[in-house]
Structure formats: C-alpha cells, structure tokens
Amino acid sequence: MAFWNLFVVALMPVLETLLVTLLGALMATERFNFLRGVEAKNCLNSLVFYVFTPALLIAELAKTITFDQLVEMWFMVVNILLTFIVGSVLGWMLNKMARTPKHLRGLVSGCCAAGNLGNLPIIIVPAVCKESDSPFGDTSTCSTYGEAYASISMGVSSLLTFSYLYILMESSVDRDTQNMNTIDATTSTTHFTTTPEIFPANVKEPLLPSTNFSSTDNLSIQHESPHDKNESKVSILNHITWPITKCFGYVKMEKLFTPITIAGIIGFTIGAVTPMQNLMVGDSAPLRVIINSASLVGEGAIVSMTLIVGANLLDGLKKSGISVSLIMGIMGVRFIISPILGILIVKVAHYWGFVGSYSLYQFVLMLQYALPPATAIGTIAQLLGIVESECSFIMIWTYTAATFSLTLWCTLFMWMLE
Questions:
Q1: What is the pLDDT of residues 292-342, one digit of tens each?
Q2: What percent of the chain has pLDDT over 90?
Q3: Is the N or the C terminus of the chain less surrounded, counting Cβ atoms within 10 Å?
Q4: What is the pLDDT of residue 3?
Q5: Is residue 262 within 8 Å of residue 163, measured between CB atoms?
Q6: What is residue 82's predicted lDDT score, i.e. its pLDDT?
C-alpha cells in the first residue's frame, strides 16, 4: 500500500477526535456558555468519573474479553505496565533537568507516564479496520480483534491511571502542604523560643560555657550536612516506587479503589468467568439487559472526556504557570523518545516469542507508546482542584502536536508491519 494511503487511513480517526475537541472548545466560549463555568465542567467530570467510564468499562470488557484472550494477550498487560514505567523514568529525568517547580512535578510525571490508552485506541483501531485500504486484512476480523485489544488497553490503563496517577498527583500536593506546615511550625517555634520570658533580664550568667556551645554547634553541623546531602540524592527507583509505597502505607483504600478501578475488576471478572459471561452477554442471555444498559450509558464517556479537553483548552490559552521548555520536554518524551523505545520493546518481544505475528496486535502495542497524555489527567486535576490551568495548557499543545505526530507514527507503524 502506498505511503500516502496509509497516511490518510491514520489521519481520519485523529481528525475525528480533533473535531470533537474543537466542539468542546466552542461550547466553552462566551457565545454558547455550555461548558464555560467551573460548576458545569465539574458536574460533567463527576459524571465521567462516577457513571460513564465505569459503565463503559463493564460493558466493553464483559463483551469482548474471555479467559482465553486474557491468556493469549498477556503481553499487552505487561506492555501497558512498561509504558507507565518508561514514562515515569523519563518524567523523573525531565523534572530533574528542567528543575520543575515542586507543585508541578506530579503533573509532569503523570503526563509522561500515562498516555491516552483508553479513548484513542478505542477510536483509532476500529476506524483503521473499517477503512477500505486497511493493511490488517478482513474488516470484520480486524474489527473483532481490534475491539478486544482496545478494550484491554482501556481497562488496564484506566486501572493504572486512576490508582497510580491519582496517588502520584495527590501526593505531590500533600508533600508541598506538609513542607509548608513544617516551615510554619519551625517559624512559630523559633518565635516562641526567642521571647523575653524564656531569658529573663536578671539572669547574667551564661547557661552553658561558650566552649561547650561551640562544640555542640559544630556537632550539630556535622550531623546536618550528610543528612542534607542524602536528601538531595533521591534515586530513580525511590521516585517511581514512592506512590506504590504510599499506596500500601498511607493512602486510604477508598482512594485506590475508585469507581473506575472497581468497574474494571468487575468487567474483567464477567469476561473471564464463562458462566457469568453467558448469563449477561449475548442475545439469549437472561440478564443481558444489565450489560446492554451499561453499554448505553457508557457511550457518553469518550465524547464527554473529549469535550472536557476541548473546554479546558480555552483556560490553557488564557493563563498558565508552566514554561514553554517544559511543554517541549513533555512532547519530546511522549512523541519522540517513547515511540522509539516502544518499537524496540515490541520488536524484541516478537523476536523472543512473547508477541505473535499478527500485525494488528503489534500495531496496537506500538501505538500505546505514541499517544498523547491521558485526558483522565484533566479529570483528576479538576477532582483534586489542583494545577487545572497548567494541565489545560499542556493538553492544548500536546493534542495539537498529536494531530501530526500520531498520524505520522501510525503511518510508520502500518508501513513497518505491512
């Protein structure tokens, strides 16, 4: 197939996403004023988080996933974990090199770690399969497998995004708050200990000899210097595993088991347990109304999240506390370094026999490394009430760049696998 035909096939689903995003931006303008107010966006975010996305996960996973498919596509789960690990390491390096402000480090790490593995694959993969010039063979077979791949990608990424990423972004704010409280407490203690009542004016003899005081001061300095040096040398491994440690040690379980993670577990369970799937999925299933209703409700998830991204774009244009160099760094991680590493990982996995020869499967695995930051990051930012304008600013530029980069990478992937 000609390179130009592959380019057009890859461009169509990206343009569809861009058009819905522009519609969201239009709905947030003063003329229409549908998604302009904070309350309106918060309500839509809540619907996405508590209703639409859980329903979509349950319906798609229950319909498309079976136990045999989970066993067959085990490497996709590993691949999604690798995208988060690779992105976290690259995000840590970017924060160090760019000297990112503390309150933005969680956001930058999240944008580097979590790609849009939920919305875009479930739009791009079926759309590519439906194109007449698709390099992946028969349309019906491609669509069947493509939906299964996209559903697993959406399910696993949603579990990771709304657990690992939620904790990462929240904990960065918690640490800043604790640091501010420590500074305030230290200031108050210093002020308290230097009040005149502690050292009355009638005491004229020193409490301690000056030599002892000097040695004590020197001793304290000797103890503080190595401690400060150790604090400044935080390893990459500690930075990545810190949210996991916090998850098991300090975070309440209700923060880990969000509605989306619970829905993902339920969807995987229904799909993997054959009797439950036969009971709820299919035209003759006795309880098919449950999955059908969930599917009906879940159809609003992708459109709503894309509209929210578009509505937030206007806020990102107005104000932001994030530098252009940091935006360029995130783009370099998401659109250059990560896709190249993804190609190498998939090729090595195929060489070792972990990945089969089906070209569509390899295409989805590579695609997972080339996607822009997850739209769920904006949802988490608004739910936590933090770095919303900065997140919007990142989204507007990364998704504008993704129109070109994602199209080029999809074209290259299909050309390599043709």
A1: 999 999 888 888 877 887 787 776 666 566 788 888 999 999 999 999 999
A2: 17
A3: C
A4: 65
A5: no
A6: 94
Integer Cα distance of 248 and 243 in angstroms: 9
The structure tokens listed for 48 are 């996405």
> Taking a C-beta distance cutoff of 8 angstroms, is the pair 30, 242 a contact?
no
pLDDT for res 235: 54
Q: 150 with 363: CB under 8 angstroms?
A: no
Give all domains of the chain, ordered by start, each with its CATH number. Answer: 3-177+236-417 (1.20.1530.20)
